[in-house]
Write a structure and sequence with these properties.
- The structure holds two protein chains of two kinds.
- Helix content of chain A is about 35%, strand content about 25%.
- Chain A is of the alpha/beta class.
- In chain A, the strands form five sheets. Chain A has a six-stranded mixed beta sheet, with helices on both faces. Chain A has a six-stranded mixed beta sheet with strand order 16-19-20-13-21-22, sandwiched between helices.
- The longest helix of chain A is centred in the middle third of the chain and has 16 residues.
- Chain A is globular and about 70 Å long.
- Chain B is mainly α.
- Chain B has one domain: ABC transporter involved in vitamin B12 uptake, BtuC (Orthogonal Bundle), CATH 1.10.3470.
- The longest helix of chain B has 30 residues.
- Chain B is globular, with a radius of gyration of 22 Å.
- Classes of the chains: A alpha/beta, B mainly alpha.
- Chains A and B meet through helix 10, helix 11 and strand 18 of A and helix 9, helix 10 and helix 15 of B.
Chain lengths: ~500, ~350
Amino acid sequence: MDEIIKLENIEKHFGSVYANKDINLTIKRGDVHSIVGENGAGKSTLMNILYGMIRPDSGSIYYDGEKIEIKSPHDAIARGIGMVHQHFMLVPSFTVMENIVLGLPPRGEKIWRPENFRPEITKIMEDFGLEVDLNAKIQDISVGIKQRVEILKILYRGAKVIILDEPTAILTPQETQELFSTIRLLIKNDHTVIFISHKLKEVMEISDKISALRDGVLVNTVNRDDVTAKDVAYMMIGRELEPLQKTLEDGEKEVSLKITDLKAANDGHVAIEDISFCLHKGEVVGVAGVEGNGQSTLVDAIVGAQGTGGGTIVFEGEDITGCSIAERMQKGIAHIPEDRMTEGLALPLSAEKNLILGIHNKEPIKRRGRLNWKEAEKISEELIKSYSVKIKSRKEAVANLSGGNMQKIVVARELNREPKIVVACQPTRGVDIGSSKYIRECLLDVKKKGGSVLLVSADLDEILELSDRIVVMYDGKISGVLDAREATEERLGELMFGRG
Amino acid sequence: MKKQKMISTIMIAVFVIVCALGISIIMLLIAHKDVVLAFSKLAQGAVGNKMNFARTVRMMAPLIMLALTFSVALRGQMFNAGGQGQFYLGAVCATAVSLLFPNLPGWLLIILGIIAGMAGGMLWALIPAVLKVRFRCSEVVTTLMFNYIAVYFTEFLVRVPFYVPGAVGESGSTANIPEGVSLTTLVKGSELTTEIIFALVVTAIVWYWSRWMVSGYETEVVGVNAVAARYTGVNVKNRQLLAMAISGAIAGAGGALEIIGVFHRFVIDFAPSVGFDGIVVSLMAGNSFPLIPVTAFFLSCLQSGAKTMEMFGKVPRSLVDVMIGVIIVVVTVKRLPFVVKGTKRAVKENKES
């Protein structure tokens, strides 16, 4: 039997929205089959149905030609379907070995001894080139290794079909390459891989077949060799996407923000140290680095959410090191926080109430000591229109919006203040391609108008696409500063690991 | 949108009431009681005649005040379980003002009493609030514990500085406040005074604050997402302190009004469950200020009618406590069945169109 998995007429809706509509998909044994689509296109839902996390409203699933019913992940694993989630499901204080065997029934022995499983696990590690120190604790290993542990975990449970949900989102370019060699070994050993991503470059590199989902509908399934990246992008978003126009300018420019010897601690640990760099007017400076190397602390120190332990931050010639968040906002610093759900928006409140946040205590919204909702209506209607936010009305709670539209609300709110500096953290994470492009254009627009942008992103493509200069952070320090012209992914990757 | 939200809030309130009645009916049936008789007596006791109705409305006032206390604090993500203590502090402060300056004119003593009551309640709420924002002490625990301190502290005040020798003092009460310090009675012979109007005015003011004032809006954002509020320049701690200060002041004013309007003297622990009942009223109203008087009316109907039900309906009045218990269980259920059904229907309509 050539087909290992066949999905027939799968449908699932949440509320009034269809996440999956009449999906028919066949996956061949031994293929790397990519599922691409923008955020909210229904990729994750479809995979969660296959893995038994969600029950479909209708439709059937065939495994090896036999119709099966997957009621829970337990059933899926028993059938040989395993999934590595975007967010790892590991116990930090346990060792790698304990995590791999956790939850398996004891085989005969009275006492649970993870050690007994060692030989088998070692064999799998050798077969698939998944090297991991089995005695290390999860909390001490890097993200890339954790992902390997997750793959080991499902392989040990006998998975033949492996679903990887956005596996490269958290990896450096080097780690991605390592993951790809693992995938190739999996295929060689008669496994099947379902690869979920919206990064076209990676999809084109690793896949045999590509299926695109759009608005819950399966657009098409194609052979990788028959298409170009542009075709796949078209399948995903249903229209052409023109590349961004970035202009690099030379010559001395005025300094907007100057950071000198900045040091800050987080929970008593030094999080950043010896940070010195400048942000010029009309410039986008990218901050690259593996997440957790001090970027968040740096951002919090710049916007004023965190105290500093030394060094100065000078904005347009004025020392603002001791200023509050509100004072810095007043002076013209805007902040697009890393996580729109927990840091950027008041989710249960209306779009209108979210859009006036930050300007609510000034004219024209505040008039004679009270809120002028007429003015708020005008401003929010304008913003919703000019940022083309998809929303029923300005009174709708932002919690009901998709990720891209939520982010547009945050960006609209921050840029509406016409800031001189925009500190943008992961501005397009989890945002669909169309909105991502729009948000990036907005940031370039700030630059064009003479403002400056500090772009912190885990997405190297984004950094390379937008930045004039790139600051790389490693272990709380700056490991290198590159001009956009000399920056390559390889060079950045080295600096991200502190090898300069 | 707004209208829909309001409708769903009302629907939830109705559902809660239906559940409470339903379960009580089942209990009565199991106990072989006459359901119709019990409820008709309950209704009669609550709204059956002018005097009963006046009593019910009179009982609404402190419920409204203490429900506002809880709701306002919750707006700023503060769980103020200490309305009871703040209420007693307000009551004792108002009493003290009148007893200490008996020669001042009555109208001035009323104003001063209410102001003193607000100050007392505010202080009692601000101590846990400061502990919370400064040292992250859980305000749930501290406000709750402050209730006990308030009961014993007011008892100390009654027994020592304001002690009047004789039966009154021994029974745990202060002397009466001067005659002139009282509110106008609305229904002759009842305890219903302009206190209820005060309570409704306070509701309106709080509603205005939450909707139109900058600080009200900021408090709402803080309550929903403090991090987002902070990142957009809102002083979160300040807003939480403000919410607690307003909250405590309302409870204190509620206590002061009870003394001035009804009791005319401070009796130790004179309304032992009012703080808790206020929380129930607030939860039933589901974060909506204008709905508080409505849910307060419902609860005071139950409490006001309970006695009549016991006397003539042959059902113990603790049934009302059971109903209140059921209400609490139901309001804390987040996913009410008809809400889910509503979305299913919406989907169906969507499919067909």
